[in-house]
Target: Adenine-specific DNA methylase containing a Zn-ribbon
Amino acid sequence: MILAKIDIAIGKWKGAFDRPYPRLIEKYKQAVLAAAFRGQEP
Model:
């Protein structure tokens, strides 16, 4: 399941980097979701 992998990846990224790099997380999340909508896994 691509969406499950995305949720796990975002969770890991958020846990590690959400405080120092919230804007980076938003950009990463948007890129991952865009790739998922195109049917591609990052």
Observations:
- Residues 2-17 form the longest helix (16 residues).
